[in-house]
Amino acid sequence: MTVRSITRCNRLFSAKTANPLVSMIRLSAAEGIRQSLRFGFYTVWLRGWSDPCPALFGRRACDFSDGTLTLLPPGRAVDPGVWSVGSGRPEGRLLCFHASVFDPLGAGGSSGGYSFFEYDTSESLHLSRRERAVLEGEMDGIEAELDWGIDEYCYSILSGRIRLLLDYASRFYRRQFIIRHDENLAVLDCTDRRLGTFFRSGKAPHERLPSAEEFAGVFGCSPAYFNDLLKHETGKNTARYVAFRELSCAGEALCRGTARPE
């Protein structure tokens, strides 16, 4: 089912419409969702867990387990299992907002600053108790502004509150990369070995350079997640890191070619 309007989404989840462009939905009031959904706007879903986090959200042994944040861009299909895991009913809070209020990816699409909207569901953010409380507080603020009503200030206030919520999500995602450092190093080591093999093979002048999409296929993640992982560990995005490794391999080959036997 494609849900193009927030008003339609509110009816689907048994919520009232205070604003046709932004909504904060308490999912516990909704009936079970039995089909895939595709929203025509941004969605941010926050829930806590009274039982182990289901595997479809990608929690690892090193992650916190007091909540999960899943962020979806417009047009992303959502399996019904996402809404009803655990209790068999939707739970948590769902923030919905149109890009006309705030566009996390910017006018240029994927060039924007909140790349986690392009992550897979299995790359959700796993929260500590304190982080979850912070995000719940920000959602309370958005909900309070929606209750205030619509006037000439509401959208500037709502966009500012949504930005603050997403900035906290950015901070907490960075923390998640930090605690996954050892696992990330294994990904980086494999990336280096594959790039070394590619450049030493002499294919570089004749074939397209390896991309985030190709590495994502190797490691079973989204291109956006791989790109952010690489940038966190190396300070370079995929394109710049591939160029760096190309220069490094060329330098190694030059040294081997000019080395004199003893």
If you had to describe this structure to a student in words, what would you say it looks like?
This protein has 262 residues and is α+β, with helices and mostly antiparallel strands. The protein has two domains: 2-179, Sandwich (Jelly Rolls); 181-258, no CATH class. The chain has eight helices and eight strands. A five-stranded antiparallel β-sheet has the order 2-7-4-5-8, covered by helices on one side. A three-stranded mixed β-sheet has the order 1-3-6. α3 (129-148) runs antiparallel to α4 (154-179). It is elongated.
Short descriptors:
262 residues; alpha+beta; Jelly Rolls; 2 domains; five-stranded antiparallel β-sheet; three-stranded mixed β-sheet; 8 helices; 45% helix; elongated
TL;DR?
The chain has 8 helices and 8 strands. It has helices at 6-12, 81-84, 129-148, 154-179, 181-200, 212-219, 223-234, 238-258, and strands spanning 2-3, 22-26, 37-39, 42-47, 67-72, 77-78, 93-97, 125-127.
Largest sheet, described in full?
5 strands, antiparallel
**What's the total count of β strands?**
8
| Assigned CATH architecture of the largest domain | Sandwich
CATH level 3 topology of the largest domain: Jelly Rolls
Terminal Cα span: 72 Å
Q: Determine and state the CATH class of the largest domain.
A: Mainly Beta
Helix/strand order, N-terminal first: EHEEEEEHEEHHHHHH
User: Spatial order of the strands in the main sheet?
Assistant: 2-7-4-5-8
Domain module count: 2
Strand content: 5-15%
